[in-house]
Write the C-alpha cells for this entry.
Amino acid sequence: MRGLLAALKEITRYPSAMVGLFILAFILALAAYAVITIPYGEAIRLWRGGEATWRYNPRTAAPAWIDYLTPKKLLRTVILGPEDAQKEVKVLSERTRRLIFTYTLDYEADVFPSELAVVFKSQYEKKPPRVEVIWRTPDGREFSFGRQIPSGKVHWYTVSQDRDLIASLRGAPEEVLFQDPNAPEKTLKGIHTITIKAYVFEPEADLEAEVVVYGTVYGIAGTDHLRRDIWVALLWGAPIALAFGLGASFGITISSIVFAAIGAWFGGWVDAVVQRLTEIRMVIPTLPILIMVGLFYSKSIWVILAVLIGLNLIESTVKQYRAVFLQEKRTPYIEAARSYGARHLRIIFRYLIPRVIPWVIPSFVLAVPAYVFLEASLSVLGLGDPVLPTWGKLLSDAFSHGALYHGYYYWVLEPAFLLMLTGFGFTLIGYTLDKVFNPKLREI
Amino acid sequence: MEPLLRVEDLRLYFRTTKGIVQAVDGVSFELAPRTAMVVVGESGCGKSSLAKAILRLLPRNTHTYSGKIFLDGTDVMALNDEQFRREVRWKRISYVAQAAMNALNPVIKVGTQVAEPLFIHNNLTKSEAVNRVVEAFQLVGVPVDFVDRYPFELSGGMRQRVVIAMALITSPQLVILDEPTSALDVLTQANIMNSLKRIREELELTYILITHDISTSSELALDAMVMYAGQIVELGKAGHFFLEPLHPYSQKLMASVPTLREDKDLEFIPGQPPSLINPPTGCRFAPRCPKRFTTCEKEPPMVEYKDGRKIKCHLYV
C-alpha cells in the first residue's frame, strides 16, 4: 500500500500526468455534478419524457455562447406569458366576455426566429372560447391570423405550420413577420405588438395565452432534432462513460489476472484449459457478438457491459500475466509459503496477484478509453441504450439526422470533444503510471 | 526411546526429459526426540530432496513418491494432502528452505510474514499473533521493532533469523534446516548456529540440519548422516563420525574440510557424483573410490559397525 501511494505521489512529478489528472478531475466533477443535479430518473425523464418536456425549446438550436463568437446577434427563445401581457376584459353580455391580451416584443436579433407558436390555456365547461391573433410589426404592418377555437385545456397553435397563413403571406410566417420589407434577407428591429383577442362564452370560463418566439440558440450545449437539451446528455454521458469504461476495464483486468494466476499456479490441465480459452477468446471478435446481443436481446447498456465483461473474462492479457506468475511461482518465498501450509487460494490471492499490480495499474488505466469508445461505437451503430442519454447516442442522433450536412456542428463536436478528452486524460495518466511502475521506461 | 521420526525406504523420483532422476532412493533412518542430525554430502546428492520428501513438497514432475514416514508413531504417508497440510506442515514439522534469505515475500512486512503460519494454522487474532511474533523475534535475536520492516530493509543475517523465527512460530517438534547459513559471512554463521543451538535446548526441539559446511555444523550435530547419490552411506553419532569417518566417501569428505594453522593439502574427490538418472550398479561411489575392489560391483549392504554406526560399504562386511 505504501509503495502504491508513493507511486501515485511520484506521478505528480510528470506534467503530462498532471494534465491527465486535471482532465480526469474535470470529467469526474462533470459526472458528480450530473448525478447530483439531475438524478437518474430525472435524466431519463428529460431525455425520454415526451414532447411536453421540451416543447418550449427551439429545434436544433446552437449553444447560446455561439452568440459571442459571431458578429450577428442571434436569438434566444422568447416566451411571452400572461404576466407579460396587458389584459383588458369587456363584458359583452350576461355570458359573453371579450378578453384582449397585448404583448410587446422588442426584437433586436439579426436572424429570424426558428419558429413561432401561440399556446392557449383555456378553462370552460362546454363551449370553448374563440381566439384571434393580430400581429403588428415595428413598421406598422398588421397581420391577422389564427382565428380558431382552441380545444382542450392546452392548445398549441404552431404559427409556423399554419398552411393558410403561409399561403397568404407567401412565405414562412417567422420570416415574413420579422423581415425588413425593403431588404428581405434582413430582420426589422424594433417593437412588435401582438394582440390576442378572445371571446369566452361562460361566466366561469377563462383563457391565458403564451406567445413563443423560438430562438436560434439555446442553453450551454444547444438542442437536438427533438428540441431536447443536449446539455443533459453531455452531463449524463460522463457518469455513464466512466461507469462503462471503468467497470469494463476493472472487471476484465481482475478476471484475467485471477484466471492467469489460477492457470499458472495449478499448471497442468487447468493451465491448458485457461490457455486454450484465451486463444479461443483471441480469435472471437467482440464487436459482432455485442451487435448480435444488441439486436436480438437487449440494448441496455448494463446488459452490454455484462456481456462485454463476460466475453472478456479471459482476455489476451492472460498470457502476459501468466508469464509473470510462472516466474513468481518458482521463487523461494512461494516455496516457503507452500511449506508452511498456505492454501492455494492464499498463495494465489495474497502472494501471487500482488506481484503483478505494478503491471496491472497502467494497463487498467490505459484500457478504460477503449471501452468508453466501444460504447460510443455501439451507439453510433444504433445499438446504444434506448433510455439513457450518452455521448455515443448524441453522435448517433447527429449522424442519423445529418447534423454535419445541415451545419449543426455543435451536435457532433460536443460529444466528440468529451469522448476525446476522456480518452486523452486516461491515456496521459496511463502512460505516466507505466513510467513510474516500469523503471525501464523511466526518463533519464 | 520411541523415535520422533522414522523413515522407511523413502523414494522420490523425478521425471525429466532425459529420464527418471532417482533423487532419494530407498532412505531409511530413525531420529530420536530432542536430537540434532546433520545431513552432509556433495551438491546433488539428494539432501534437499530428502527434506522435501519428508515435507511432501513435491514438484509437478514427481514420478515416484513412496516409502513410509512415521512421526511420533503416526503414519503421515497415509494422510491425504489436505490433512497433511493441516496436521503436519508447520504444526509438527517446519522447514527453513535453502536460500532462506529469499524466502521472504518482498511485498509483505516481515512481522506479518512471520505471523502467516499462525494465521493459517492457529486462527489467531492479529494482536495475539503480534505477541507471538515478538516472542519469536526475541528468541532468534531480531530487534522487535523490525516487525514493520520489509525484507529488503534487513541484512542477510537478520533475514535468516526472521526465516528461522517463522519456522519456530507455531512451536513444531521437528525443524528441518536446509543450509540455513549459506551465503552468510563466517561471524554471522557462527552467531546463527549458536542461536539455533540455544533455541533447540530451550524449546527441546529436534533438528535435521542439511549442510555442506561440515565444520560449522559440527557445533550443533548430535547425529550425522552422509548421503551420496540419493542414498545414505553412513549414519551414526556425530561424535564418532567427526573423529573417525568410516565410509571412504565420508573420509574424503572430511579430508576436504580446511583446518586453520595446519599445513595440509586439501583433498578432493576426483570426478563428480554420478548422474542420478542412470546410477552405476553396485556401489554408487565405486567409480571414484580409492579403495574399490571387485566386490564393489555388487550392491553393498547396510552394515552395522561396532559403535552402532551404519555404513553402506563392502569394506565393513
Notes: Chain A is about 55% helix and 15% strand. Residues 249 and 364 of chain A are 6 Å apart (CA to CA). Chain A touches chain B at residues 3, 267-268, 331-333, 335-343, 346, 351, 354-355 (CB under 8 Å). The longest strand of chain A covers residues 97-107.
